[in-house]
Write a structure and sequence with these properties.
mainly beta, 3-stranded antiparallel β-sheet
């Protein structure tokens, strides 16, 4: 990425809901009774649409 003067980072947030499953270290989601985690994938591209 350092070789490009401009890199765009496209990001989205997704809830992974594991409600009802017995897993450790899950946290609350948008509703306190839901248990899971948040995923924040990021896709880096140049303005010419080259993936980085």
């Amino acid at each position: 990425m350092a070789q490009h003067p401009v890199v765009l980072c496209l990001q989205d947030t997704t809830e992974l809901d594991f409600n009802g499953q017995s897993m450790d270290d899950l946290g609350p989601l948008c509703f306190e009774v839901q248990r899971g985690m948040y995923l924040h994938p990021t896709y880096a591209v140049t303005p010419d649409r080259e993936a980085q």
